[in-house]
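Objective 1b of the project was to move from sequence-level analysis to a structural picture of ligand recognition. The entry below was assembled by the postdoctoral researcher (A.K.) and checked by the PI before modelling. It contains the amino acid sequence of the target and the SMILES of the bound compound, pyridoxal-5'-phosphate.
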Amino acid sequence: MNKKNILSSLPSVDEILNNDKIISLIKKIPRIVVVNNIRTCLQNYRNHILKMEESALINFHIDKNFLVNEIVLKSKSFIEMNLKEVINGTGVVLHTNLGRSLLSDEIKEQVWAVASGYSNLELNLQTGKRGSRYSHVVDIIKFLTGAEDALVVNNNAAAVLLVLGSMAKNKEVIVSRGQLVEIGGSFRVPDVMEQSGAKLVDVGTTNKTHLWDYEQTIGEDTAALLKVHTSNYKILGFTEEVDLKDLVALGKRNNIPVIEDLGSGVLVNLKKYGLTYEPTVQESVALGVDIVTFSGDKLLGGPQAGIIVGNKKWIDKMKKNPLTRAFRIDKLTMAALEATLKLYLKEDEMTKKVPTLKMLTETKESISKRADELYAILKENNVDFSIEIKDDYSQVGGGSLPLEKLPTKVIAIKHDNLSVSKLEESLRGYSVPIITRIQEEQVIIDLRTVQEKDYHVINKALNHIIVK
Ligand SMILES: *Cc1c(COP(=O)(O)O)cnc(C)c1O
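Corresponding predicted holo structure:
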């Protein structure tokens, strides 16, 4: 057959609509969705045929069954949720690809109440007049950080852009060369600064920047000194950074504000819980930094947000910047952020109730006990697999504490008749996808980021795998 004949023998949309499988599909899925997918699949098939070599067409026949199955699959996946819950077996706590921080169970009612009902988002309940959406979190952020004022936007990248655009447009901002970081997804500090209209002046060298580097560069056009917390990498060895204290003093002497992009934004002293010290927001504020920005969904453990704290004078200026409107956070985020911040009021409870802190501070003994539990379930029901418990390390992730290695326990799985990559792929393809990593020809599931409710899902997923 030639191409023309083959193409003209493709079934019509109406013909496919009369197929038994499609008729029963339309009972479950809106007809309009099915028709749309019939058209798409027919077009794909047509394109496929058009691309084929003439010689390959000799024995070619239209495979109607294949076509119908494609349409059924496409239509089913079309109505399923594409964005869905997965199980994080990677042990990377702040996994950017998996949504970073988990919100606490404690706050779900508050968030849902605001989401599904009307709220006083921008209404002052005392006066009955228009209120500010930021008012809901300003007092608690001030209380937790010691800052004079606060503002919240969609994420920390937006916060940096807003801060620089409001404080240093068409002026110079001095930053150490060692702090010109890329934050991932090709998001680079110098590029953001350029967008803001501020002129970047880098000083020092990659490994060393001295106070006099800043001092010599300060001039009439200098609008701010910027410190970027290099939270996602460390330069080790022969290095020197200017102490924040000295930078603040230099700023004060010259009447130039100091801005700090802290990135991770931790509010608790992690050292108390056996983790590496990470500068806290309140320390920067106490040292006299004029404006500090940080993320809501990194070490803070809340929703995606960018939090700006510092001098009221500057925050007022930012509030008048049209970018604030463009970057404004929505009510879901606001509800989740306020509720998460409230969890910080009870110091003894926050490491139990903020999932990010809970996972980061869980002891190896506790993880070990949970590994035993998961092991027992898997071992009993999946005799074909070789399963063991191993020592390993988890990571903080999200560009925070890059050198931190958290001792953990992992479940290592393999199967004699199934490649480790197939095993990883099958778990990832399960109805509740299980994200694992491969190490030494085994699939590794790190218990640190796996919750108790996940155990039976993992068990079912393994049961589900058919080894031919
Ligand atoms: C992560 C990070 C950002 C970006 O924060 P998002 O909330 O992801 O937008 C900016 N600066 C630093 C130093 C960071 O670590």
